[in-house]
């Protein structure tokens, strides 16, 4: 456009700056800002607000605060409610709630009235910090000023009240929300309630909430149903969990990996590995790719039931299919192998960890060291302790306890004495 002498103005530049910010290239956005000055344009409040939002979206909160402060200091702009709210929301999301509150109070000095979004950002941040009473006071204040809360204002307060089991206040707030303020709960709000009731063992209440959702035309999504499935599984009511799964499918809602992970984990805990494996295979038939969490659950189930060699076979099989293990995978297998006296297999597996681009951490070293000690492979344990110390790790209480117990029965063993002193050091 510039080369062809097609006229551009500050609005053209603002659109381009906004595009750069959304593309995570704030450096380009500031280059464009410099160009606006060179061309004699005066950036407006929208341009500057876009740049602040861009900095915040890249977790550059300090730079955003400095930029905002300089804009006010040098009177480049008169910040409007959107500018203030953008800054406040960014501060809240990066954990700077106290600074956000200070800026919130500064708005009035600038004759800029906070709106619903501004209040909601502060309330949400207070709730995340567990300061629900402060959030409730701010909620009352906004209503006194005639600023109407929306569903996103109510939801975080309801969530934290539920987590504190302040059920009476939950009921009062819901009543105010629905009947007084005519604010309809959305799927997110209902899911909060389903989750809270489920975790408190109130399954009937959770099911009642889903019934209300359906009556109000707010269709539960997979997150809502996963919450209910988890509740059934945690109480060992597997038939109920499967009923919910069938309900999901009947409503043409696709279960996700988390749905199957919950069920597979529950069946492993119920020692019904055949059913867990059937569900695992069903995932593939429904076009879902199992995650590393799925595999870790099954490996843990096999090891817990005393089948570490089957777990090892399964591990090599999924590796062959291109699935990458993580450190939880290795800890699970090493623990299962050592517990069932396959320490040589565990040592061989331990040596492959770094080949997969992973670095053993303290817990992993301690698991394999305990396995060596319990199998009387003291020299091997000694070498592993040296390597662990070189990596900056130390023995944990469980490892020290095993050593102490061995010393009581074999007090004269010089290798054990030296090993114990190393661990204590």
TrEMBL record:
Could you tell me the keywords of this UniProt record?
Repeat
Family that this chain belongs to: Belongs to the PPR family. P subfamily.
- GO terms of molecular function: mRNA binding
Superkingdom of this protein's organism: Eukaryota
Q: What is this protein called?
A: Pentatricopeptide repeat-containing protein, mitochondrial
Which windows of the sequence hold PPR repeats?
9-43, 44-79, 80-114, 115-149, 186-220, 221-255, 256-290, 291-325, 326-360, 361-395
Q: What PANTHER family does this protein map onto?
A: OS06G0152500 PROTEIN, PENTATRICOPEPTIDE REPEAT-CONTAINING PROTEIN 1, MITOCHONDRIAL
Query: What InterPro entries does the entry give?
Result: Mito_RNA-Proc/Resp, PPR_rpt, TPR-like_helical_dom_sf
Origin species: Heracleum sosnowskyi
Pfam families given in the database record: PPR, PPR_1, PPR_2
Which SUPFAM superfamilies does the entry link to? HCP-like
Asked whether the UniProt record includes Methyltransferase among its keywords, one would answer no
């Amino acid at each position: 456009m510039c080369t062809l002498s097609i006229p551009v103005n500050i609005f053209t530049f603002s659109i381009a700056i906004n595009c750069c910010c959304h593309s995570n290239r704030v450096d380009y956005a500031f280059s464009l800002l410099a160009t606006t000055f060179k061309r004699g344009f005066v950036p407006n409040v929208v341009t500057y607000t876009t740049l602040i939002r861009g900095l915040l979206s890249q977790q550059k909160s300090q730079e955003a605060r400095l930029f905002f402060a300089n804009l006010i200091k040098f009177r480049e702009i008169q910040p409007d409610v959107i500018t203030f709210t953008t800054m406040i929301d960014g501060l809240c999301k990066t954990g700077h709630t106290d600074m956000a509150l200070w800026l919130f109070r500064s708005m009035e000095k600038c004759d800029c009235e906070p709106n619903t979004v501004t209040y909601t950002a502060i309330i949400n941040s207070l709730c995340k910090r567990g300061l629900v009473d402060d959030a409730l006071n701010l909620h009352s204040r906004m209503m006194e000023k005639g600023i109407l809360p929306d569903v996103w204002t109510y939801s975080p307060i309801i969530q934290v009240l539920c987590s504190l089991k302040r059920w009476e206040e939950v009921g009062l707030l819901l009543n105010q929300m629905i009947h007084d303020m005519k604010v309809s709960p959305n799927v997110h709000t209902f899911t909060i309630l389903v989750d809270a009731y489920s975790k408190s063992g109130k399954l009937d209440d959770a099911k009642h909430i889903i019934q209300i959702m359906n009556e109000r035309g707010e269709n539960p999504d997979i997150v809502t149903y996963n919450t209910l499935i988890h509740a059934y599984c945690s109480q060992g009511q597997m038939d109920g969990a499967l009923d919910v799964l069938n309900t999901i499918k009947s409503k043409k809602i696709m279960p996700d990996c988390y749905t199957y992970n919950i069920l597979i984990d529950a069946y492993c805990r119920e020692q019904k590995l055949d059913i867990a494996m059937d569900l695992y295979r069903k995932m593939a038939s429904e076009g879902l790719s199992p995650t590393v969490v799925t595999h870790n659950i099954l490996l843990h189930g096999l090891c817990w039931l005393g089948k570490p060699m089957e777990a090892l076979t399964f591990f090599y099989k999924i590796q062959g299919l291109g699935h990458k293990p993580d450190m939880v995978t290795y800890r699970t297998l090493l623990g299962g192998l050592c517990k069932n006296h396959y320490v040589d297999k565990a040592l061989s597996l331990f040596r492959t960890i770094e080949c997969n681009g992973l670095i053993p951490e303290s817990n992993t070293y301690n698991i394999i060291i305990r396995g060596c000690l319990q199998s009387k492979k003291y020299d091997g344990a000694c070498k592993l302790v040296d390597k662990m110390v070189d990596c900056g790790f130390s023995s944990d209480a469980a490892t020290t306890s095993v050593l102490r117990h061995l010393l009581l029965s074999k007090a004269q063993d010089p290798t054990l004495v030296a090993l114990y002193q190393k661990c204590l050091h």
